[in-house]
Amino acid sequence: MIKLEKLRRVAAVLQVVTLGLVVVGLVFRATIYWTMQPQSGAAFGSGDILDFAIALALFLASTLCAMSGVGISLLGTQADKGLAYRVMLVGILSFLAYEFLHGRVPRLM
């Protein structure tokens, strides 16, 4: 059985990783993505593949973040409920914000 303290530490790391992936993904989309054009006749370029990999990693991190929030809510006391809600909101809203902003990021290069 996982201990509550270990779950809190994992949740703190997952929050930072999730928000970091959002920033990395949006900066990549605004800058380097546009320099990686597909070869002539190819459907996807290396920029598209890296963009998909970042989105997939973000989805995994945000899912784990939300799951750790649920775990803290189940295992913790009443005082831990605020932490559980924060971790869940970071997990859910970071992915939604990324998907909303992904297509709206201006081209900087």
Explain briefly what this protein structure is:
Keywords: Membrane, Transmembrane, Transmembrane helix. With 109 residues, the protein is an all-alpha fold. Helix content is 72%, strand content 0%.
Keywords:
single chain, 109 residues, mainly alpha, 72% helix
**How would the global form be characterised?**
elongated
Secondary-structure element string = HHH
Number of strands: 0
Percent strand equals under 5%
Structural class of the helix and strand makeup? mainly alpha
Question: How confident overall, as mean pLDDT?
Answer: 95
Helical content stands at over 70%
Reported for the largest beta sheet, the result is: none
Number of domains: 1
Cα(first) to Cα(last) distance is 49 Å
Radius of gyration, in Å, reads: 17 Å
- Quickly count the helices: 3
Keywords: Membrane, Transmembrane, Transmembrane helix
Transmembrane segments: 12-32, 52-76, 83-101
What does this molecule look like?
Keywords: Membrane, Transmembrane, Transmembrane helix. The chain crosses the membrane at residues 12-32, 52-76, 83-101. This protein is mainly alpha-helical. The chain has one domain. Helices cover 72% and strands 0% of the residues. It contains 3 helices and no strands. Helix 1 (4-30) packs parallel to helix 3 and helix 2 packs antiparallel against helix 3 (81-102). The longest helix has 30 residues, at 46-75. It is elongated and about 60 Å long. It starts with a helix and ends in a 7-residue tail after the last helix.
